[in-house]
Please model this.
Amino acid sequence: ILDGFNSFMDPTTGQPDVQVLGIDVTGSQGDKLQLSVDCQIMNPSNVAAALGPVSLQLWSSSNVLIGSLVIQDFNLAANAARNAVTRFPGVLSQIPVPTDPLQVAAVREFFSNYLNGKNQTAQIRGPA
Model:
């Protein structure tokens, strides 16, 4: 039996199988802030995947898109128990200067919490 990836969501809890472990601001380029994101993905399938570069999005806890990231070499481990975890350290991410008022507020809150050392929740999702 080949089990699917379930959009990397736990079907019993509805929680994402993708976790952001840490975010570091590394610099800026033009009107974009550069980040390094450490994340991990639990594979709910017994099928490994080697997909090459994969584009993803970084969302705030208030469900607002705040940036994008690319995992250059997306190789996902698998096992028979359907709980293999693959870590992706130092994934480069960019946050452009927002123009939408909702995004401005979300990015401001995100970096205010970052500067104050407060833990916060961020999500990584595939592009819509």
Observations:
- The mean pLDDT is 87.
